[in-house]
Amino acid sequence: MHVFEELTSLLEFQLCILLFVAFVGFVIAWKIKQSVIIWEILIGIVVGPSLLGLIMYTDVIRSFAQIGAVILLFVIGLEFKIKDVFNIKYGIIALIGVIVPWGCGYALAVLYGFNFINCVFVGTALTATSVAITANVLKELGKLQTTAAKAIIGAAVIDDILGLLVLSFSIQVVSGTITALPLALIIIKAVVFMVVGALIGHRYLSRLIEKLDSTKLTGKFPESLFILTMTIAFLYGFIAESIGLSAIVGSFLAGVSLSGVIIKQGKSIKDGAEYIQIIFAAIFFVSLGILADFHVLTMPIIWFLISLTLVACLTKIVGCYFGARVGRMNHKDSLTVGIGMMPRGEVAMIVALIGLNLGIIHQDLYISLILMSLLTTVIVPVILRRYISR
Amino acid sequence: MHVFEELTSLLEFQLCILLFVAFVGFVIAWKIKQSVIIWEILIGIVVGPSLLGLIMYTDVIRSFAQIGAVILLFVIGLEFKIKDVFNIKYGIIALIGVIVPWGCGYALAVLYGFNFINCVFVGTALTATSVAITANVLKELGKLQTTAAKAIIGAAVIDDILGLLVLSFSIQVVSGTITALPLALIIIKAVVFMVVGALIGHRYLSRLIEKLDSTKLTGKFPESLFILTMTIAFLYGFIAESIGLSAIVGSFLAGVSLSGVIIKQGKSIKDGAEYIQIIFAAIFFVSLGILADFHVLTMPIIWFLISLTLVACLTKIVGCYFGARVGRMNHKDSLTVGIGMMPRGEVAMIVALIGLNLGIIHQDLYISLILMSLLTTVIVPVILRRYISR
């Protein structure tokens, strides 16, 4: 048994299993015609601690998964122009789509008898959309350039920022130190980063890359430009994280800023980033399944989980549909936006983790938030594929 | 200061610095016309704990570096056919090139007054060549398909196996439990793995990949084949490690076995693996610099280090030159083989680490072995480039 544990803890074994699981996900998705992501998460649950216990959610796997999310958003960013993302209409969708789930999540938790602080955290966990899941489904369907897709991506980015603001606000409420200053400071920092980052990336870094592409450096080492580009992606991710945003907001911004770059001599930036994404985004999705441990579930918790998931889905659909209609989108596009904004993914999981670490919420609420976020993630690709294909 | 430390420990920051350092390595190598690897290691020393302390050798960085070495050897393996590697001539080069350094390393340590057990470890650390460095220099020079290059790669693979056998033998000497059985067992396991692995990879896995390439699975998900290929690379690495070899021997074997695969419909295996290698091999080389902490060095240790490095270089040149001449290679090719076999890299570092962990060697000897291995690594690209270019 000891030898077995030692062998399965080897890095090569873990990567082998993670990638094999991802490959099996592709085979099943091909046979049953569903999104690859769902199968990757579901088989992740099977090989993870919940069932087979072949693989654990170690620090190293968390790091790989984190890189996967960062690269995925960078690659998605590369497919967008700056003006596609920054748009007042998307701001309205994001705002209404944050207020409605927060309020209803809070109310549901009150109904189930949780204390004030727990209720605040449940509301907060429902606010931020995980753009990675929806964007990947849209990418698989080849629908990234539609009006609805642009609205979803744009709103999800703003919504992520709003979600993180709500989180820092909630922590202040909990610790009883509400002051307007830090909150305003985070908002200002976020806005400055988005504007300055986009400007520097678009005006200077893009030009720098194109200029280096015409030198002998690239002629001799065609791979050097690709390394520089990935440096920029992680730099933006780092800056975003260091001012209190999610790293994926930063790498997405890097992708959008560099989307206009044309490489002639060096190795293709987009091809390279996509190859890295193929491996690491697969690990990210499988790890979402590994993260879920079902052992602590009891019947009352299952009921709360079901209600919570329903509230999470309905409030995002209603809030974002309404926001999209306000921005004069048609019925079908607005509903697509509503459905596309449903997945909570890693942001809700981060909120749950912070709550647990601060000792504010307990294991039962923690696992409910994690599973709610997983369920919305599993449901959305199914609904979205059916709805868009019609 | 606390905030600074918290920020620099962020994953995105570490990756950003590692990749930026690698990029600077490219720029300097372009201007000063040297191997990129040397600069990556040297700048790694500058940003690491020895000087700036911007980045530490954490578990996560070690994992990335390990993946880098595994992928690098996989990509190099893809450029070879099976018959290029398994050759009795290379076996002779490897064998003499292991015996001479072991004996002289042992003798040198005796001369410096180390005890018996320490002397055994010094000898062992000198045995195994690190093929990653030399192979990358040859790759940069476009000389991978020459007679000398094939001999170096082939001999280095066998030499790695021999080195690991010497290590397990040394540990038995130290613990006073020398029996012929376990040693014979490791040799048998290694030979069976190499033969069976090459056979299965070449006959069955290659065909499986080509067959999948013609199905609709690849038509729908062109990236799925690339994920399967990387799964095989890590699987071979895992098997190698689990039977007591180095993981890079396994991934190299996977590369060699799959080198004949022709992909028509799916994403290119070779392009994909190269993109992953660009990022992770760069991290591997920079991390070699980060690993070296100069703070424990004193004058007597520096003298021992210089002698050790000289012995390490000369014994490999003489041993492998002689082995190559026995195999009827000409003078220039034999000398190229001798020089190319000099770098010790990660294998010597692993030996040093095991010795330290077992409490057999102390910090002074540990740092000497690490720095010796780094110095041979830094010297070889300089000499090899000059010698081959003449």
Describe this structure in words.
The structure is a homodimer of 390-residue chains. By secondary structure, chain A is mostly helical. Chain A has one domain (2-389): Na+/H+ antiporter like fold. In chain A, 79% of the residues lie in helices and 0% in strands. Chain A contains 18 helices and no strands. In chain A, helix 4 (59-78) crosses helix 8 (131-140), helix 6 runs antiparallel to helix 7 (116-125) and helix 10 packs parallel to helix 13. The longest helix of chain A is centred in the middle third of the chain and has 34 residues, at 180-213. Chain A is globular. In chain A, 57% of the residues are buried. The model of chain A has no long low-confidence stretch (mean pLDDT 85). The interface between A and B is large, with 49 and 49 residues.
